[in-house]
Amino acid sequence: MSRVALITGASRGIGAAAARVLAGRGFRVVVNYRASAAEAQEVVGAITAAGGEAVPIRADVTAADDVSAMSDEIGQRWGGVDVLVHNALIPFAVTSFAELTWEQLGGKLEQELHAAFLVTKAVVPKMLSSGYGRLIYLTTGLSRRPRDGMITLGTAKAALDQFVRFVALELAPRGITANLVAPATVDETRVTEQLTPEQMRALGAAAPMGRLVTPDEVAKTVAFLASDDSGFTTGHYIPVNGGLAMD
């Protein structure tokens, strides 16, 4: 029987690409969305047209009742989640420290960790019972290398990174891996839609490969971590940045 992958924030961008790639590799895919029902249905339609299995499920991943209901629906339909790809973008303020308020920073921290906590708590029990699981979280290089204006996102993702390491440590003996994927600026996403052509060119030129990362390139890294081939890889932070930052 095919493994089940839940991708949060999968109506477009990295999430949609991950859903398509995983479905193409035989996973049954849950396309989670919060408000973009039509876009989520398009992703599902593309997957089913290509011979895959997918279902859209609406849930706000920062709301406990929504996450619980989504988990119950997946359990009833397909028996639970084998692979979690936590990609949902939690909104954040772009601001300097001088203009930063605690509501902006504390709000982003609380929502980022609350969402990761809720979805992880929802999927891990089934993984523990089966002795198998893949937990994959989208993060950012800003959690390690600050950039002007990105204090809320970078700080919240740094907290997420450490949360994932503790989860990886605890669950490793039970056959469950937990890893972080850290793309540089990704083309064709909500973030890049807010940038000017000049900003896009500058960001692409900064990478040794001379361009931005594509959603499919991130999705293929996610697919490796979702596969059996990654069984001895856990607790890791994996950049997808074309050589922009070499650790």
Automatic annotation (TrEMBL):
Gene3D superfamilies from the UniProt entry: NAD(P)-binding Rossmann-like Domain (3.40.50.720)
InterPro entries noted in UniProt: NAD(P)-bd_dom_sf, SDR, SDR_fam
Entry-linked Pfam families: adh_short_C2
Keyword Nucleus: no
Catalytic activity from the UniProt record: a (3R)-hydroxyacyl-[ACP] + NADP(+) = a 3-oxoacyl-[ACP] + NADPH + H(+)
Chaperone as UniProt keyword: no
Highest taxon of source: Bacteria
Protein localization: Secreted, Cell wall
Primary localization class, coarse: secreted
Classification via SUPFAM superfamilies: NAD(P)-binding Rossmann-fold domains (SSF51735)
Keywords: Cell wall, Oxidoreductase, Secreted
GO function term, MF aspect, one: 3-oxoacyl-[acyl-carrier-protein] reductase (NADPH) activity
Family: Belongs to the short-chain dehydrogenases/reductases (SDR) family.
The protein, known as: 3-oxoacyl-[acyl-carrier-protein] reductase MabA
